Task: structure prediction
Amino acid sequence: MARAMNDRERIVDALARLARATDARDWHTIRTTFTEDATGYGCTGVDRIVEVMQAHLGGCGPTQHLLGNHRVTVDGDNARSLTYGRVHHRGAADKAGSFFECMGEYDDRWVRTSLGWRLAHRNFDMHIALGDFTVLQPAA
Result:
C-alpha cells in the first residue's frame, strides 16, 4: 500500500521539479513554483524573478542543476529548506565551448498554499565559481 508523501518529500519533489524546469527553460512551471510576491535573485515578485532567470539563461546553452543534501524544517504552514547545488552552464553562440559552473547552497523559504508548497524566498550562497560567468546571457 502506497503512503502519502509527507511535507519534506513534497518540498524535495518541488525542488527537483524546479531544477528540471530551469534546465528545460519551462518558465510556466518555474512561475507556478513561486508565490506571486516571492523574493529572490535580487528582486521581488514572480514576474521579475522569471525575467531575471530569463536574462541569465535565455541565451545560455544547456544547463544542469544538481541538488542534494536536503535539510527541510517544517513549522506548520511554513518551511525552510537548505539544499546543496552544483550548477553547470554551457555557453552558446559566440560563447560555445565556454562554461560557467557554480557550487553552493540554496536557502529557501516555503509557504503552504491551497495549491501546495510554494517558494516565498530563495537565496543561493555561491561557494565556488569556475569558468566564464558571461555564458549567462539573455536570448538574442
